[in-house]
Design goal:
There is one protein chain. 63% of the residues lie in helices and 5% in strands. The chain has 20 helices and six strands. A hairpin with a 2-residue loop joins strand 1 and strand 2. It is elongated, with a radius of gyration of 31 Å. It binds arginine. The site of arginine (ARG) has 10 residues, from helix 7.
C-alpha cells in the first residue's frame, strides 16, 4: 500500500517495493510514530484545523492501534512501505475519512525526523544509565583494591608502581566523559522538527509549541529545511557511541592480557568465560574479545552515517533512509556490550599476589631510587645516570634494587645509605604518590567517593 498513488498508473514492482521499503527496520519506531501522530492530531484539533471531535476520534483510534500492536492483536505488515504508512493506513482502515485527515499539514519527512528523535532521546538515556552502572561497579572495585600494588606500564613495559584501584578509576574517568558527551548530545537532539512538513513548512495555522510540549521537547527547530534534512543527532550519537566503544575495547584488551598466564592478574567468572572444543585446559575471555571486536561495527556505523549525509543537497533525499539501520545497530551493539561487560567486571576475581609479583620485577622503583638521590641534593640527571648504572648491574647479577647490597650502591654513588631501602619499597613508592590524581590509596578512595557523588 502506498500513500502516493494518485499520479501513478501502474503498481510498484515487487523488487522495487522491497528495495524501497524500510519497514523491516523502522517498525521498531511504531510507538514513537503513534505518540507523534497523537500529538499532531491533538494540535490540529486545538488549532481548529480539523474538528475537535475528529481529532478525538483520531487520538483514540491511534491509542487502540498502539495497544493492539502491543498485545499482538495487530501484526505490522512487512509489505508496507514504512511504519508511517502502515499506521496511517491502519487508522484509515478503522476510521475511514477521519484516518485520512491525520496527515493534514504534515509530511513523512518531518514525521520520520520526529520519530527518530523521539526514539533516540530514550536510547541516549538508556545508554547513559548503563554506563553509570558500569562506573558504579568500577568504584566498588577501586575501593576494594585501593592499596593493591601493581606495575603501571608504558609501551607495555613495566614502568612505575601504581595501585589497581587507580588503574580501574582511569576507566571510570573515561566513562564519565562519555556520560557528559551523551548529555550534550541529548541537549542538541531535544529540538522538535514537526511542522517543517515536506521542506517549506505550511500555510495552515498550526501551533508547533503545542506539539513540542505534548512530546516533551525543550525547543523547536527554527528552519524547516534544516528540520527535515538534519541528521546531525544520529551522527553525533554514533560518534559518542564510537568513543564509548574505544574505551570498552581498550579495557577489554587489558582484561584479555590480564587473564593470560603471562599476567594472571585477574580471573573471569565461569559465567563470563568460554572453553575450547579441543583443549581441555582452556578458559577464554570471549566476552572481552567480542566487545573489542564489536567496536569495529560501531565505527563502521558512524562512517556510514557520515558518508550518507556528506553529499546530499537540501532538503530530504531518500539516501537518508539509510540513517536508521546504522544508528540502530550502533545503539544495539553498545547496549549489548554493556549488558555483558558490566557483570563481567563485577564478578571478575582480582589476584593481588600476582600483581605484586609482577611489580617486583622490571625495576619499576628505579625512578624512586633516582628521586631518593635527588632529594639528597644530587642533580636529577646525575641521579638518573647513577641509577641506570645500578639497574645494569642488577641485570648482570640477576638481582633487584631491593636486594642489591649497599656496598654495591656506594661503589656507583657514595650518597646512598641504609635509608634507601625504605624509600624504594614498592608499597611506599605507590603510596607516596599522593599528588592529586595519583595512585595513593587514600586518593583512590577519595576519587571513588567523588565519582559516586557525581553519579547520584
Ligand atoms: N521511510 C522513509 C525514511 O526513512 C520515510 C520518509 C519518506 N519520505 C519521502 N519523501 N519518501 O526516510
Amino acid at each position: 500500500m502506498q500513500l502516493w498513488k494518485g499520479r501513478f498508473q501502474k503498481e510498484l514492482s515487487k523488487t522495487t517495493n522491497d528495495f524501497n521499503s524500510s519497514i523491516s527496520f523502522d517498525s521498531r519506531m511504531y510507538k514513537e510514530d503513534i505518540e507523534g501522530s497523537i500529538a499532531h492530531a491533538t494540535m490540529l484539533g486545538k488549532c481548529g484545523i480539523i474538528k475537535e471531535e475528529d481529532s478525538q476520534e483520531i487520538v483514540s483510534g491511534l491509542k487502540q492501534i498502539l495497544s493492539d500492536i502491543e498485545s499482538g492483536a495487530l501484526q505490522i505488515d512487512m509489505e508496507a512501505e514504512d511504519i508511517h504508512t502502515f499506521i496511517e493506513g491502519e487508522l484509515t482502515k478503522r476510521l475511514g475519512d477521519n484516518g485520512k485527515r491525520l496527515h493534514t499539514s504534515r509530511s513523512r519527512n518531518d514525521q520520520v525526523a520526529l520519530d527518530i528523535k523521539l526514539y533516540l532521546k530514550k536510547e541516549v538515556k538508556k545508554v547513559k544509565t548503563m554506563i553509570e552502572e558500569l562506573v558504579a561497579v568500577l568504584c566498588d572495585k577501586a575501593e576494594k583494591y585501593s592499596d593493591t600494588v601493581m606495575p603501571g606500564y608504558t609501551h607495555l613495559q613495566r614502568a612505575q608502581p601504581i595501585t589497581f584501584g587507580h588503574h580501574i578509576l582511569a576507566y571510570a574517568e573515561m566513562f564519565l566523559r562519555d556520560i557528559s558527551r551523551l548529555e550534550d548530545c541529548y541537549k542538541r537532539m531535544d529540538e522538535m522538527p514537526l511542522g517543517s512538513c515536506a521542506l517549506a513548512g505550511t500555510t495552515y495555522p498550526i501551533d508547533r509549541s503545542i506539539t513540542a510540549s505534548l512530546l516533551g521537547f525543550e525547543r523547536i527547530t527554527n528552519n524547516s529545511l534544516d528540520g527535515v534534512s538534519d541528521r546531525d543527532y544520529c551522527i553525533e550519537f554514533a560518534s559518542v557511541l564510537s568513543i564509548v566503544m574505544v574505551h570498552l575495547s581498550r579495557f577489554s584488551e587489558e582484561i584479555i592480557m590480564w587473564c593470560s598466564w603471562e599476567f594472571k592478574f585477574v580471573e573471569l567468572d565461569d559465567a563470563f568465560s568460554t572453553g575450547s572444543s579441543i583443549m581441555p585446559q582452556k578458559k577464554n575471555p570471549d566476552i572481552a574479545e567480542l566487545v573489542r571486536g564489536k567496536s569495529g561495527r560501531v565505527f563502521g556505523d558512524t562512517m556510514t552515517l557520515l558518508t550518507v549525509m556528506k553529499g546530499i543537497a537540501l532538503a530530504y533525499n531518500k539516501d537518508m533512509q539509510e540513517d536508521k539501520e546504522a544508528i540502530f545497530d550502533a545503539v544495539d551493539t553498545v547496549k549489548m556490550c554493556l549488558t555483558a561487560f558490566t557483570p563481567m567486571i563485577d564478578t571478575m576475581k582480582v589476584l593481588p599476589q600476582n600483581m605484586r609479583k609482577a611489580a617486583a620485577g622490571g625495576f619499576i622503583n628505579a625512578t624512586d631510587c633516582a628521586d631518593y638521590l635527588t632529594k639528597k641534593g644530587v642533580p636529577f640527571r646525575d641521579a638518573y645516570k647513577a641509577t641506570g648504572e645500578i639497574v645494569a648491574l642488577c641485570i648482570e647479577k640477576g638481582t633487584t634494587l631491593e636486594e642489591l647490597p649497599l656496598e654495591e650502591y656506594k661503589k656507583i654513588c657514595d650518597v646512598f645509605d641504609e635509608g634507601l631501602y625504605a624509600e624504594i619499597s614498592l608499597e611506599k613508592c605507590a603510596n607516596e604518590r599522593k599528588v592529586l590524581g595519583g595512585p595513593n590509596s587514600e586518593n583512590v578512595k577519595a576519587q571513588a567517593k567523588r565519582i559516586r557523588e557525581l553519579l547520584s
